[in-house]
Amino acid sequence: MISGTLVSPLPVFVTILSILVLLVVLKFRRSNGRYPIRPFPRDMVLLHQCGKGPHAPSLSPFIMKLETFLKVAQIPYQIVRDYKMGPKGKVPWMEYNGMVLCDSQLCMEYLIAELNLDVDAHLSTKERAVSTSFQRMADEHTYWLMVHWRWAIDKDKICFKEANWGIMALAVSAFLQKRATKTQGVGRHSKTEILNIIRRDFEAFSNFLASYTFCKGTKKYFFGDRATCVDCSVFSQISQVLWHLPNSEPQNILKNEFPNLVEYCHRMKDNFWPDWNENILISTDS
Amino acid sequence: MLLQVLVAGFVILVTGILCKIGHFLYKRSVRRHDVPPEVVILYQIGRGHHAPSVSPFPLKLETFLRMTKTPYVNDHSGKFSSKRKTPWMEYDGKSIADSQFCVDFIKKKRNIDLNDHLPPSQKAVGRAFQKLTEENLYWTMCLEMFGDDLTTVRKVIPYTGLKLWLTIWLLRRVIRQETWGHGIGRHTPDEVWSIATADLTAISDFLGDKDFFMGSEPSEVDCALFGMLVMIVFNMPSSRHEKYVKENLPNLVGYCERMKNRFWPDWDEHVLSSPTYQNDDGKVYFQENCEADVKKSTDHKDSNHVY
Predict the structure, then answer these.
(1) What is this model's ipTM?
(2) Is the pTM for the entire model greater than 0.95?
């Protein structure tokens, strides 16, 4: 009996200790300050990101957001697929003339100020306010709904398997992302509740896109016939549902109830991503 | 002998702690049974020193109930919902968690739509600003309150001694974890501050000189905005958020006063530091609407009277 009580907890203890050691190593690796110091090309953004997505250029909406912005603003850039997390433990991150920057939104704001870009310059004060609100909704709300769906509700994870994610990577990511969505809040909702919230976010994007309240003339994008910063956010978040949640309920809601958002995504893709097929793993006509 | 005394003492201590925890859990599990039908039981934490709540979400929900003249009663015992969140509510025995789900439930149950006067694009803008406030600005406020300087939060949380210390310690841990997972907790304080000012400026720029956020009449987004801005104007004394709003965005201060006067004329009765404070636990508001035809749409636009 004594030997039984000494032996049986040992495998559990070893497993827990291994996981703790792994988490510590990952944390240390993330916060290690040694980033590539190299001769950098002048006035060119080095965009650090992970691998290509199977049906859209990335499985990360924030990588797509930043890269779409670089294309909209016509900023020269070079992709660096080194699979390294940035100084804040996230991707994407970028280097520009020796400066290291993280977070897609902060990167965009830095480039707008540094290069005196006029992407949003034509917007009125009120329009900029509305632009900020939709950007926040897309990146801080719709994003988490998509993350919860893809990691907690979608059991198949087809697109991750198509992108050659291994079992360990899927398991660790699922654990971390489910924990993140639970602490954020959306992870506590049921599947039906999530679908209703997603529908309402899409409805808001769709109704604003279809309205002419803040626009005279054609309405190709959120604020008229010129793409602005908010288009980069909204397009990148919706594109994950359109291209990377195949045959899912959110995708069905998007395609069946909000066709103008689908058209909008295709418009952004056709106008700003002529190299789309070169940046995806599985080329299709959709 | 000494060992036996130590073991006995340890057993008594553990038993005492377990009894305390058990009593605490029992009190939190007791449901109210003395509420008339079709009256909302609003479970929220207690009142604050400077505003009817120290959290924006209970204030949002209670303002919505007042705006729609929905009969309700407060329960300040601090019970948490099944999703381990607060506020939450019960309606005829059904529990609903999450402030926005509560709002949606009441809208459906009582056939009320505070946005029915708005075109679809304006409803979309309202939703976007609500998400900006609750999913982004809110976290900058948490980081400001529970950052390195805890002076402000100590003035606001209505506890003292060990209870205050434990509450702050627990909330700080939770907020650090939540903001790290969210992403905003990974930014420098200056970056977080730039996000906060961008959000506050956007809210102010859109509000402009309008009486309410979407126009001359209040709508659903006003409940969320008012709940959050009250935290800044009343519950974050000497913070950067408060100074920025009061010095640079006076229209937001004016907006809070208008909402307060319209829907909280009894504000002082719900503020702990006020000499006219009254504990309203169990008091039914809008009782005259209990027997009204709840299928009929309630006109929220009329009068300055709350009840």
Answers:
(1) 0.87
(2) no
